[in-house]
């Protein structure tokens, strides 16, 4: 099977981005939190606990009454959902025959009880599932959501639940005089990459410090005269004032040099000239550029790995207003009405 294009988008539900499974009506055999773990599920045969074989996933008891089971996930970064994966790996005689997905957009941090009365919108009607498989489903919806609800019919086990999409964070919460415009949680996004043999370039934009080398981006070894690169569409066009190129944990495989360029219209301008990089080091560079750029390309020479890329900058006021307007247009109707009713500063400069 050819991987769908939306699979290249970040998993908005991932624990690595701050996602959380806020509730589940049942988790008798296996805990709901397993649904959003970043690592792939595993299975150890003949590993039994007090309730039977231990599964790396979410598993409910066998239903003896009408109804179905469900789990609610708060997205680590709200956004537009483009595809979901309902992964039933290792669940064979106990996977759900079918599942559906709904979503809602809400203000603030509602409790599980409050979320029950939210305006849930259908994203995926009930679809048949295959056991011990990653079930891929494309989503056709353009609105921004903060929570998703996975329903399984009638019961069973799901190893992982991935929610791939485009981050659309709340611009009202950003200090746009100095913000990491590359951060995935702020709306930054990878748009291109020359090589991701050992690690995804999405890792460069994750929150916090990488704990191990495997949490960064790493290319295969080059055997030609070229170099590797990654391009980032910024959360909003801005002036980049400070760049951080972090090679933490990359010791014998860090790039030797790096450059940064910014996109203005259809032209690339230099932000950071070719600069020597050290292994296992957080490099911080003040930039003298004054141009507003919408995308940044980092080239590494000739290849290697990097843990994080931070691009701190400022967004012009007029562009900030456009960002807020674009965010508002993507809200579900119920959340849009709530914003207008409760936020006295909305729409003001």
TrEMBL record:
Extract the Pfam families matched here.
Allantoicase
InterPro entries per the UniProt record, alphabetical: Allantoicase, Allantoicase_dom, Galactose-bd-like_sf
| Highest rank taxon of the organism | Bacteria
What is catalysed by this protein?
Answer: allantoate + H2O = (S)-ureidoglycolate + urea
Can you say what this protein is called?
Probable allantoicase
Q: Kindly give the Gene3D superfamilies that the UniProt entry links to this protein.
A: Galactose-binding domain-like
Major enzyme class: hydrolase
NCBIfam families recorded for this chain? Answer: allantoicase
Q: Which organism is it from?
A: Fodinicola feengrottensis
Pathway annotation from the record = Nitrogen metabolism; (S)-allantoin degradation; (S)-ureidoglycolate from allantoate (aminidohydrolase route): step 1/1
Q: Extract the PANTHER family matched here.
A: ALLANTOICASE, INACTIVE ALLANTOICASE-RELATED
| Assigned EC number | 3.5.3.4
Could you confirm whether the keyword Transport appears in this record?
Answer: no
What keywords appear on the UniProt entry?
Hydrolase, Purine metabolism
Q: Where is the Allantoicase domain?
A: 18-167, 187-315
Q: Which family does it belong to?
A: Belongs to the allantoicase family.
